[in-house]
Structure formats: C-alpha cells, structure tokens
Amino acid sequence: MKSVFTLSCSRLALLAAFGLAMSFTQASAADLGGNCCADLEERIAELEATTARKGNRKVSLTISGWVNEAVYFWDDGSQRNAYVGTNSLEQSRVKFSGEAKIANGYSAGYTLEIGVQGNPSNKWDQTGPSSTDANSPNNSLIVRKSNWWLKSKDFGKLTVGLEGSATYHLLDDADGVNTRNYSDAQAAAVAQGRFQLRSGGAQVGGTAIRWNDILRGADNGTSGQNGRRNIVRYDSPTILGFVLTASWGEDDQTGVALTYKEKWGDFNILAKGGWEKSTDENLTGCAPFSATGATREDCEWWGGAATIQHAPTGLYVYGGYGQTIDHGVELISAAAESKSDLWFIQGGIEQKWLPLGKTTVFGEYRHDNLGSRTGKTFAVDGGASGYVHDGDINFWAAGIVQNIDAAAMDLYVIYRHADGDLTNSAGDTASLDAFDMVITGARIQF
C-alpha cells in the first residue's frame, strides 16, 4: 500500500507541475500582447538595426581601429604646461575593410579609414591645447584612406584611391619592434608639431616660427618619406622576402620602394628603402614657393631604414637615413640650401618579463641637417632679416612601452628633448632653447 500511495502522489505532483507550466506559458503569451512571434520578430529587427551588417553576402565587412590618447608635459625653457589630447603620431581611428573572392587566387576588396581626433597633439602650441590649424580643428574626423583593390596570389595587388604612396612611412615601417606606434622615425617631429621656437626665452627673431616650419620633408617634418595620397599603387607578391611597391598620382608624384623581411638564424630582419619625386604644387612639405611670379614645385626624396633584432635576447637596433632635395628653392636663390637630411638610431630590448605581455625599453637619437625654408624669415640680435637658410637640430628620447596582451593595449611613457641652432640667409645664427617633453598614455585596439 505504501508504494502505491507514493506512486499516486508522484503522478499528482507531475500533473500539477504540468498544469502550472501551461498556465505560466499562457500568461506569458498574454503579456506579449497575444502574439509572441510578432514581438520576437520586432526584437530581432531592433538588434539588426543596431548591429554592423554586410551590405551584401558577397563582400565581407571588418571593423577595426584603436583609441590613442595621452598626457603631454612640456617645457620650452621659459614656459611649461600639461595638455591632454589625441596622440597624432598614430591618431585614434576606425577602419572598415572587406574582401570578396573572385576566383581561385583572385580577390577584390576595399579600405575606408577615418581618423578621429579630440585635441590633436601636433596642432597645439604654447597658447593652449586647442588646435592652431584651421584645416585640422579639434573634435573632427579625417578621411585617412578610401580605396578599392584587386589582388592576385601570383601577380600582386593593385590599389586605386586614397592610400599611402610608395614611400609612405618608409622609415617608420622599418621599425620592427613595439616602438613603431610610439617612437618611430617621425615621432620627434610630430611631438613638437606647431610649438613655436624660442631663443633666449623669446620667439626666434620676434616671429612665430614653429618646429614644423623648419623640419623638412614631404610628411610630418621627416625627410625620406611621403604621406597618403590619391594614387594608383602596385605591390608585388613576396619573392625571397622582398616586396616591390610602385605608385603614381596627384599632380604628379611617382615613387618606388623595396621592402625586405626575413629571419636569419636567431636574427629578425626588417628593411625598407625607396625614392619618390613630386611636381605637385599642393605638396606642403616641400613648397609651394613663388619664383618669378609663378608657383613652382620640384621636389624629390629618398631614404632607407632597418631593424635587426636578436630573437632569443630581444636586443635590437633600429636606424635609418632620409634626404629631401627641394629644387624649388634653387629658383629663388642660388645660395639657398636645397638639401635637407636626417639620420637616426634607436636601440633597446624587448622581452616578456611580465605575464601581462612584452616590455620594450629603448633610447634613441635623431639629427637633422636643415635646408632652406625661404618663406620664413627672422633676424638675430637686431641684425639683418633673412630667410631660414640652414640649421642643425638634435633630438634625444628614451622610454618604455608595456603591452597588455589580454586587452590588446599598450601603455607608454616617453621622454623627449630637442635643441640646436638656426641660421638665416644673412649669416646670423640663433641658438634654440631646449625643448623637453614627457608623453604618457595608452593605445587600445578593437
């Protein structure tokens, strides 16, 4: 009798649970307005509206980028301050890219990259952290890249649109360690950007001549490399570690470059070299200059850089050379110095001492031999006024970059120092006050 009674109780319990579940389901359906499927479809539509989707099922869509913000402590010898803003060396950005397979070994794709800046670090000066460049204001978006491409496994890649030229980041991209985004070849020039030069605690010659007025080069005051342009570009397939790049565009710019990446025993090797020429009057890095009433431009540059790293120890050396030849200044004065060049060297160690990720410790030196900048004039101690004829600038830096692998994040602290002298066409020389800066920030990728 006991076992029958227990079984009956169990059946009653199951029936009660089933009835309770049915009543709950009916109540839930009633709460959804009597049509649960319609509400479910509405919710799915809402999620789709707020989710990145492919425009079609043939071409992929990938969204990536990073945020790079930092605090800058600076001292120009007579004034000091601290600013917060977007690190313009590798500004915050969003990248949209995609690819579609055409046939076996052939594909097509696109790149659309938008730069995002709060207070751009290379546009502020002693007057405050707001941008002093009307063409690059605070809290703005910049189209960095917009292009389509065709790629063949055997024949290489053809790109059309806004993209880096053959010598784009020629010296920077030869940096094979984790200083590439924080202290590469052009970092010294970008850091000081539009800060005004000081000599004896005052503006040089009483005029607002800035660091990027005297540092030459087609891109970010760095001789030997170019920027992003509207071009047709070709990249060859990799052959024995080499990739050949050629580009043409704007009005007119033509260049070639060669990249080499390989491992020799315990050593990782990365090297780049290239040459480019421009007759484009809108290329602000070399001109325009007015000669005999006409705007003329004729500029060329070349350079090379490499990184050699001993993989077991993490010790490395990264260095290079770049030169700009501005034939435009020769049209204004036969005495003008048409050549500007620089050389730099960085050494350090990169090891995973912490479980967080790799740590990179480094020191570097860059020296610039300045050419003429005829559009900028100054006088020294009441002497005759003359255009910037030449000069010598020294940059020192040291820092540490700590990778946090789990968060795709890098933390960095970098000290920078600059000094030198500037000579005008009258033969007078101004000794520049030292400029010191400490940069600390982080870049997080997505």
TrEMBL record:
<feature type="signal peptide">
    <location>
        <begin position="1"/>
        <end position="29"/>
    </location>
</feature>
<feature type="region of interest" description="Disordered">
    <location>
        <begin position="119"/>
        <end position="138"/>
    </location>
</feature>
<keyword id="KW-0732">Signal</keyword>
<protein>
    <recommendedName>
        <fullName>Porin domain-containing protein</fullName>
    </recommendedName>
</protein>
<dbReference type="InterPro" id="IPR023614">
    <property type="entry name" value="Porin_dom_sf"/>
</dbReference>
